[in-house]
Design goal:
This protein has helices at 3-27, 83-96, 111-114, 130-139, 143-146, 215-227, 243-265, 270-276, 294-306; strands spanning 46-49, 54-58, 65-69, 74-77, 101-105, 125-129, 152-155, 161-163, 168-173, 183-187, 192-194, 232-234. With 314 residues, the chain is α/β, with parallel strands linked by helices. The chain has a seven-stranded mixed beta sheet. The protein has a five-stranded mixed beta sheet with strand order 8-9-10-11-12, with no helix packed on it. The chain binds zinc ion (ZN).
């Protein structure tokens, strides 16, 4: 394929990605009603004990959440997708501990992780990476949701350490990956790390280009995560994982990156690459965000790198 042809489809794909972005931003993070895939009654909220001080929250609407119970305070990780589910989650936590629920830490800004924020008490302390707050500020149009924005304390690189009472929690940032604002919440004493959507299992990870996510960044961030002294990794949409699971995900992303770069250099088309990776274009469903597949994201990244195109930054 000639280079000019490549520039042609690259522009088309970039445009498609941009339009996808706009609709994703309009439909996912701002939605106040649930999209079709969540309209069936969600499974009841349950707390799964991970360690003496840590539970994983399953069920309800949106992504799985976490609970860390110190002697003085409880930290909740992520806010579910609806106010109702967030309130149910808090009620379930009340059944296992009377320690006050004081802090909410957000792994990133996607609606299935943050839209239930209004189910939290108005004096909750909220921590998020600064980019995540910025995306929430863009996405929240509802007055009730916007009232929670001033409660968010932000951090940039590194991140603060929070003491829940004889139990320290680190809020870490390793750079752009799933989005440009992914926080890793790590409890060294329990050797547990919460990864939000940095980890997926049994399917390709999502990389949100419309939030400046980056697949090469994801590999870097997951390698940084493995440098932590953690044994258990909890995430938004997968079961409890171990170090080997994280290593396997890194390997699978790296393999795809190498294969796609090779195909690109051989002059293969994006359509050929999509066919090779069995990526099918699915019809748009109203209210359901459409995201680029991992092979498409990698293709764009490789094309930008190889053709000297600068990624679009906000
Ligand atoms: Zn996400």
């Amino acid at each position: 394929m000639k280079i000019c042809q490549k520039i042609g489809w690259l522009a088309a794909l970039s445009m498609a990605a941009t339009f996808g972005t706009a609709s994703a931003q309009q439909t996912q993070p701002t939605q106040t009603t649930q999209p079709p895939q969540y309209q069936q009654t969600p499974a009841p909220i349950t707390l799964e004990k991970i360690t003496d001080h840590i539970y994983e929250v399953k069920g309800g609407s949106g992504a799985s959440c976490g609970v860390i119970i110190g002697e003085k305070e409880i930290m909740v990780i992520d806010a579910k997708m609806s106010e109702e589910s967030a309130k149910q989650m808090l009620a379930e936590i009340r059944k296992i501990s009377s320690v006050p629920i004081k802090v909410l830490a957000l792994t990133h800004s996607d609606g299935d992780h943050v839209n239930g924020i209004t189910g939290f008490p108005a004096d909750i302390k909220i921590w998020a990476q600064e980019e995540t707050k910025r995306y929430m500020d863009d996405a929240f149009t509802d007055e009730k949701q916007r009232a929670y924005l001033p409660l968010i304390k932000t951090f940039a690189s590194g991140g603060p350490e929070y003491d829940l009472g004889n139990l320290k929690v680190q809020l870490l940032y390793f750079g752009p990956a799933h989005t440009s604002g992914d926080a890793v919440i790590f409890c060294p004493q329990e050797k547990v790390a919460f990864l939000g959507d940095l980890f997926f299992s049994g399917r390709d990870p999502l990389v949100h280009r419309h939030k400046n996510g980056d697949s090469f960044g994801l590999v870097k961030v997951l390698n940084s995560v493995l440098k932590l002294d953690a044994q258990v990794f909890l995430s938004g949409h997968a079961d409890k994982a171990n170090r080997a699971d994280v290593e396997a995900l890194i390997k699978s992303i790296e393999e795809k990156q190498a294969q796609i770069e090779a195909m690109f250099l051989e002059g293969k088309s994006l359509e050929e690459a999509k066919k090779f990776f069995k990526v099918e274009d699915r019809p748009a469903v109203s209210g359901r965000p459409q995201f680029l597949s991992l092979p498409e994201v990698i293709w764009l990244e490789v094309a930008q790198k190889r053709m000297g195109m600068k990624p679009k930054k906000k």
